[in-house]
Write a structure and sequence with these properties.
It contains 19 helices and seven strands. By secondary structure, the protein is mainly α. A hairpin with a 3-residue loop joins strand 4 (311-315) and strand 5. The chain is globular and about 70 Å long. The chain starts with a helix and ends in a 10-residue tail after the last helix.
Length: 470
């Protein structure tokens, strides 16, 4: 039965892979051996041990875990829907890998698709059934591991776009926000707390390294205990400690309570699925894909708790964090933890959106970074480069095309400073729409305050028109 199911998945994968190639006819023609579903251009890492990249490995792990769960619980049909979705994600990623050999570029293409189809609410509904069935396998559980890795897939889709932007060309204040620890004030049960937010850029780069070295099985091919699975993604690195020391922040223990700093045994923690992706749509628009309100979603997450146990979550901005669930930290998720986490999340994703819009038309032709330093080739006016180094790298190829591009005249020849001004206008439009969309109901919303700080200077700064640097 297991082999039959795997063979069916393989045929479905080949079918989807060819369909995706067909949407790009040029790519399809270049890879004619694939036509007729004869051969695939890569080997499956599950068999060969070599994955295309860290995202291919993550998708492969998720497929393997689902295959195991489908074999164990064949009557739970909703698992099949997640299996089909992951097959499409991975087939798309393989097609993207034929399109570009640059890892960050193909990962960005696939994560863009994942952002459009990521579903979390249905997973919580499944957890009500499978969570009870898997409870007897508390130490080693395929379901909890799948839930955690699926959430990490959503986290990746939201914050990995940071590596596609040239942070050095942000404004000075935003560079500090991305590269240093930040504190987020919150009053809980009459006590003032300062929630620590990790350096965003370092957290993303560290997360990529963690994915690259991650394995779900031990040397005997047995699934690792769940606390080892999520513990691999604890944000602990020397660079973070150095930054914290310079800022006067004590060394951070990811297994201390986020609020009262009480140490907690990670093996006795309960993991709680806490996806900010489906929280986000409700807070800023009223409903998510599963038609749940913001209030319903917070309560749905809280329904996972064992009232007597500490719980651990992975949240964007904070990483792995524990709430001890005792004393003043008890029963605070719905009204406090979920709220300040979504506000921190908004602060981070708003920064990404701001520069995605500002730098939209400033993509370097060579390194593919969105950079505020991008300028045009002085001859053809059609290629943008973020630095002389990138222009020199491309020159051997570009010099044979430059004059032809100049004569052709069909390329976009908008001045770089005008591109920057248009990007700023787009960012301000998004800022205004986001402010109107907040539905958290708090009188002094920290998210709105942070958004005003993030975008406010753009409204009073005049666009500085400089001579075009070609």
């Amino acid at each position: 039965c297991y082999h039959k199911m795997f063979d069916n998945d393989l045929q479905f994968f080949k079918q989807k892979f060819e369909e995706i190639l067909m949407t790009n006819l040029e790519l399809y023609k270049k890879n004619e051996p694939v036509r007729g579903i004869c051969n695939l251009p890569f080997h499956f890492g599950e068999i060969s041990g070599n994955y295309i990249d860290y995202l291919d490995k993550l998708l492969g792990f998720l497929q393997s875990l689902l295959c195991h769960l489908l074999y164990r619980y064949p009557k739970i049909r909703k698992l099949g829907g997640f299996s089909n979705m992951l097959v499409v994600f991975r087939a798309y990623h393989w097609a993207a890998s034929l399109q570009t050999s640059v890892t960050s570029e193909r990962v960005a293409l696939t994560l863009n698709l994942i952002r459009s189809f990521f579903i979390a609410g249905k997973l919580l509904n499944l957890n009500k059934v499978l969570g009870k069935l898997e409870f007897r396998h508390e130490k080693v559980t395929a379901w909890n591991t799948f839930m955690f890795l699926y959430e990490m897939l959503g986290v990746s889709a939201l914050i990995f776009p940071l590596v596609r932007k040239d942070v050095n060309t942000y404004n000075e204040e935003d560079i500090q926000r991305v590269r240093l620890y930040q504190t987020f004030p919150r009053t809980i049960k009459g006590k003032e707390h300062k929630i620590l937010v990790s350096p965003q850029e370092l957290q993303v780069l560290e997360l990529i390294k963690q994915f690259e070295s991650f394995e779900i099985c031990d040397i005997n091919f047995n699934l690792k205990p769940f606390y080892e699975i999520y513990g691999h993604f604890a944000f602990i690195c020397d660079e973070a400690d150095i930054i914290a020391q310079k800022q006067g922040i004590p060394k951070i223990n990811p297994y201390s309570c986020e609020l009262c700093l009480t140490d907690v045994d990670p093996e006795k923690c309960q993991y709680v699925f806490n996806s900010m992706w489906f929280f986000d749509s409700a807070l800023t628009g009223g409903m998510n894909r599963d038609k749940m309100t913001w209030e319903e979603q917070r309560k749905a997450c809280a329904s996972q708790f064992d009232e007597e146990r500490a719980y651990i979550t992975f949240s964007i901005g904070s990483g792995l964090r524990v709430i001890c669930n005792k004393g003043d930290c008890k029963d605070i998720f719905v009204d406090h933890v979920a709220v300040y986490r979504i506000q921190i999340f908004h602060s981070i994703t708003s920064m990404l959106s701001k520069y995605k819009l500002q730098f939209k038309d400033l993509k370097c032709w060579t390194c593919k970074l969105l950079s505020g330093n991008s300028h045009r080739c002085s001859t053809c006016k059609s290629r943008l480069y973020c630095s002389k180094e990138c222009q020199n790298k491309d020159w051997n190829l570009h010099k044979s095309l430059c004059d032809d591009l100049k004569e052709d005249g069909k390329q976009i020849k908008i001045d770089s400073h005008e591109q920057k001004a248009r990007g700023g206008d787009r960012a301000l439009e998004t800022f205004a729409a986001t402010l109107k969309g907040c539905k958290c109901g708090e009188k002094d919303c920290a998210m709105v305050h942070d958004m005003r700080r993030l975008y406010g200077k753009m409204q009073i700064q005049e666009t500085k028109v400089e001579d075009e640097v070609d």
